[in-house]
Write a structure and sequence with these properties.
The complex is a heterodimer of chains A (325) and B (579). With 325 residues, chain A is mostly beta strands. Chain A has one domain (2-324): monomeric porin ompg (Porin, Beta Barrel), CATH 2.40.160. Chain A is 8% helix and 64% strand. Chain A has a 14-stranded antiparallel barrel with strand order 1-2-3-4-5-7-8-9-10-11-12-13-14-15. In chain A, a hairpin with a 2-residue loop joins strand 4 (84-96) and strand 5. The mean pLDDT of chain A is 89. Chain B is mainly beta. Chain B is 7% helix and 41% strand. In chain B, strands 19, 23, 24, 25, 26, 27 and 29 form a seven-stranded antiparallel β-sheet that branches. In chain B, strands 12, 13, 14, 15 and 16 form a five-stranded antiparallel β-sheet that branches. A four-stranded antiparallel β-sheet of chain B has the order 1-42-41-40, with no helix packed on it. Chain B is globular, with a radius of gyration of 29 Å. In chain B, 47% of the residues are buried. Classes of the chains: A mainly beta (325), B mainly beta (579). Chains A and B meet through helix 1, strand 6, strand 7, strand 8 and helix 2 of A and helix 1, strand 1, strand 39 and strand 42 of B.
Chain lengths: 325, 579
């Protein structure tokens, strides 16, 4: 039903506005697609993703509102449960003097984690092996952008609201997240870079909902993230790197909650890339990402279970923009 | 028109966003009947149905006191009343807890009547106040409760005394280790004069309990944390052994007051078994048979300085290995006629290996024609020249045979020079195989109460490592790591194991059979508990249901209606009547 509605929305918008259209294709390999720890049977997967972007300028207020609609589909060839789609809508409203207000909404459908035992099943007359656990991730953000000294450097402030709602048979970890983010970015003739800091407070909103599992578990946490990204131009080529570090401290104060009590982790992702333009204005990009998470907890089984590392190789081709007036 | 477009656009976003709603939590039809959340992990439980204690004399109480006493009820006069009790061994936080089980129509609940987390004896054997209760045992005959604090002491307490404060019909001053007026269990005194003992299991033959009980306990020696001198001779690696504990006199022989005060007259035998390896995971004791899960580890070779030598085991699939020098460097092979072939670039200062497939100690003692041996109780020491092979030429070496374990050692520092050939020829037959890292077994022994020793019966090889072991009448059940549960006939040593339906790749933490209700319970960790209908007469228990509980360590039946489960997060009770 959602897909039908989405399609209708695109058709509707495309009928009444002039549009630009972009499409990107991703070809990748993830050596630990389910983020399993070393003690588990680690699974890899190749994947293909397609991303379509419709963009337009809507003359709603005095200055045109920039509008983007992005639809992304992921196909995991060796682990179909990870396949999913997402879409996002972004609005950016100029306020004059290089100041902007922006709003974005991003919905990621069915992010598959792993098979979990849902202890709220009670007694069943068959062998219960577990439930596929996946969640829908909704992200809202409202931001304000202003230049800093020169128009090439700018600051963005965001208020972020997110929800993570798990599947019907596994709702004990539903989260509501509130966050703030500040981002500094700078662009010049030779390079561009940005830094951002984000603070999130995640509340486990299904705690104590009269199921067994939520009696002794609280998945709420506070998380601090920082991102540093740098890209250098070499004629029509670019090389860059980014470091993304998340420090998460779980807030459970239930001593019996072995999985979350006194647990923290540092999740670090380092990416390097190289991109270049083809003669026909299409662009290619090669990325290598290494992600590692180190978990500290009172129980070694928790540390073992929640510590992992993974490597991703990705090739992206960006097809040139097409305009429809 | 602009405003109209704007409204449509925003409305579209909001409607779509509104589709992302939270689901309702799922609760199954046969859900939990009662949950007792605890801070520490509940590692073991005992359910006692219809308990009464003779020493509680309700006739002494007036009507008001009688009606308020859980052990008494008033009807013309004050009479004693039975209770259902649940005893919980909780790791770290709560310690030992006793609950009164209250069952009213279709509801069940727990009423805590005793809790004690401060009875740990601190001395040179037990330095930290960190009770880690793992195992409970109860003797109906003696009313004694046994409590195992893992890697430290085993305690015992006379239950009517421990629960003295729950009634006004009995009044004694009992043993109180920490003077907090909560009566304490008392440690096995047999450990007080022996340092570095580490208890990890206690079992009792429930089919053969008298007022004197008889508990077998497993002691583990960890070479990584205790000195070489404190390892049992002649071993230089981690190991385990069984001891036996019993009462010389009925615990109440000198009256309830002395029983309550922990004045027991006990006897013990520290060595009732050969040397086993460290990784024993479970012991079961019934009908004078002792079942031991994982008695053997892989072989060990060390140099004279105690450093481990890395020797691989070579399979002789191509039958191209005739003598030791045919082996690749740093490898060994055990032949069908009992020769241990080796090829190593390092000098060997110590070796130890296990064979399975027969009673090695008996085989060697009857086969080796050698007068140079010394019986040391749980191992026999032979001079090296009792055996053929490279070892026979090294006079400093001795060979110890303990059960199915062979130990090559020297009192003074001595090496078998690096070489290749036959290290030792045990002259065994093709029934014997060397335990390597791919071999998992459990063993069956006969307990001989006259000799106070266990006699080897047979070994069974299993598809993976055994986590739990159980026996009822003619059957043995072995719960494995990541490979479910297998059943076989007792006395059938043909490795004819049948896997129980539905046990899949679960790790089986505990096996329990309730004979009265004919229910078999398998506690399978994060998988919960599997329930089977079983009459104990066939190798085919019928799957009845799956309780999807929290991480389950052990489970027991209550009144043929409820399953009580000790979980990682406390105690959970389920009604299994309607499945």
């Amino acid at each position: 039903m959602q897909r039908v509605y989405l399609f209708s929305l695109i058709v509707f918008v495309s009928l009444i506005f002039s549009l630009d259209y972009k499409s990107n294709y991703y070809f990748g390999y993830d050596n630990n697609v389910l983020k399993y720890s070393d003690d588990e049977n680690i699974l890899f997967s190749r994947y293909i993703s397609t991303q379509k972007t419709l963009s337009s300028k809507l003359k709603i207020l005095e200055r045109s509102t920039r509008f983007n609609f992005i639809l992304k589909k992921n196909y995991f060839l060796d682990n179909n449960k990870k396949s999913n789609y997402s879409f996002s809508i972004k609005l950016k409203q100029p306020l004059g003097n290089y100041r902007f207000l922006d709003f974005s909404y991003n919905f990621i459908n069915d992010i598959y984690l792993r098979e979990y035992v849902d202890v709220d099943q009670g007694i069943v007359n068959y062998i219960y092996d577990g439930t596929d656990c996946e969640f829908d991730f909704s992200k809202y953000s409202i931001g304000y952008e202003r230049p800093l000294i020169k128009k090439k450097s700018k600051l963005n402030y965001y208020y972020l609201y997110q929800t993570q709602f798990y599947n019907k048979y596994f709702t004990e970890f539903d989260l509501e997240l509130n966050g703030i983010k500040i981002k500094y970015s700078n662009t010049n003739k030779y390079n561009k870079y940005n830094m951002s800091l984000t603070l999130f407070d995640a509340k486990n909103i299904t705690r104590n909902d009269e199921t067994i599992s939520t009696d002794y578990m609280d998945r709420g946490y506070q998380e601090f993230s920082c991102v540093l990204s740098y890209e250098h131009k070499l004629n029509n080529k670019k090389i860059g790197f980014s470091i993304n570090e998340n420090l998460r401290q779980y807030s459970s104060n239930i001593i019996a909650d072995q999985l979350h009590y006194n647990r923290m982790h540092i999740d670090r992702q380092i990416s390097i890339w190289y991109s270049f333009f083809h003669g026909n204005n299409n662009k290619s990009k090669f990325i290598i990402k290494h992600r590692s998470r180190n978990t500290n907890a009172d129980y070694s089984w928790v540390e073992d279970l929640k510590t992992f590392d993974k490597l991703i190789f990705e090739y992206i081709i960006y097809l040139r923009k097409r305009s429809f007036k | 028109m602009k405003t109209f477009k704007y409204i449509i656009f925003i409305f579209s976003i909001l409607v779509y966003s509104g589709c992302d709603k939270q689901s309702n939590p799922f609760i199954g039809n046969n859900n939990i009947a009662y949950q007792e959340n605890l801070m520490g992990e509940s590692r073991d439980i005992i359910v006692l149905e219809d308990v009464e204690f003779d020493v509680y004399d309700c006739s002494l109480l007036n009507e008001e006191d009688c009606n308020s006493d859980m052990w008494c009820s008033y009807d013309q006069s004050c009479n004693s009343k039975s209770n259902d009790l649940l005893i919980v061994a909780n790791q770290y936080e709560e310690g030992l807890i006793v609950y009164q089980i209250i069952e009213e129509e279709s509801f069940v609940s727990l009423n805590k009547i005793y809790q004690n987390n401060s009875f740990e004896v601190l001395d040179e054997s037990s330095l930290e106040n960190d009770l880690e209760l793992r195992t409970l045992l109860y003797s109906d005959d003696s009313n004694m409760l046994y409590i195992l604090d893992k890697f430290e002491y085993i305690y015992n307490g006379w239950l009517p005394g421990l629960l003295e404060s729950t009634t006004q019909s009995y009044n004694d001053q009992c043993y109180d280790y920490d003077s907090n007026l909560i009566w304490d269990p008392i440690q096995f005194t047999v450990f007080s004069d022996i340092s570095n003992l580490h208890s990890t299991q206690i079992v009792m033959d429930e089919s053969n309990i008298g007022n004197l009980d008889e508990a077998l306990y497993l002691i583990k020696y960890n070479a990584n944390i205790i000195s070489q001198q404190n390892l049992p001779a002649p071993l230089k690696t981690s190991s385990s052994k069984l001891g036996a504990y019993s009462f010389a006199l009925d615990p109440t022989a000198f009256g309830s007051e002395s029983a309550c005060d922990g004045l027991f007259f006990t006897t013990y035998v520290p060595d009732i078994s050969p040397h086993f390896d460290y990784d024993i995971t479970d012991v079961f004791f019934k009908n004078n048979k002792v079942f031991i899960a994982n008695p053997y580890n892989e072989y060990v070779f060390k140099d004279a300085s105690g450093n481990y030598l890395n020797l691989s085991y070579k399979n002789n699939e191509l039958e191209d290995i005739v003598e030791g020098c045919d082996l690749p460097d740093n490898s060994i092979y055990f032949t069908d006629n009992g020769e241990l072939l080796y090829n190593t670039q390092n000098e060997i200062g110590y070796f130890e290996f296990n064979l399975y497939g027969g009673d090695l100690s008996s085989y060697i003692s009857s086969d080796v024609d050698c007068s140079n041996f010394q019986d040391n109780g749980n191992y026999i020491q032979y001079l090296s020249d009792c055996f053929e092979g490279e070892i026979s030429s090294n006079n400093n070496y001795s060979v110890g045979v303990s059960g199915n374990k062979v130990i090559g050692y020297s009192i003074i520092t001595s090496n078998i020079d690096s070489n290749c050939g036959t290290l030792i020829d045990l002259n065994t037959n093709e029934n014997f195989s060397l335990i390597n890292d791919m071999t998992s077994t459990f063993s069956v022994y006969d307990y001989n109460s006259n000799s106070n020793y266990i006699d080897f019966n047979y070994d069974i090889e299993t598809p993976s490592k055994v986590k739990s072991i159980y026996s009822f009448d003619d059957y043995i059940l072995a719960g494995l790591y990541d490979d479910g549960c297998y059943i076989t006939l007792l006395g059938n040593n043909t490795n004819n194991l049948v896997k129980l339906e539905g046990t899949n790749s679960f790790t089986v933490n505990d096996i329990y059979y309730d004979e009265i209700n004919q229910i078999l319970l398998l506690s399978v960790g994060s998988g919960g508990v599997l329930i089977y209908n079983w009459n104990g007469l066939s190798a085919n228990p019928n799957f009845l249901g799956h309780i999807v509980s929290s991480h389950a360590y052990t489970a027991r039946i209550l009144n043929g209606k409820y399953v009580i489960i000790a979980t990682k997060y406390g105690v959970e009770i389920y009604n299994y009547e309607n499945i």
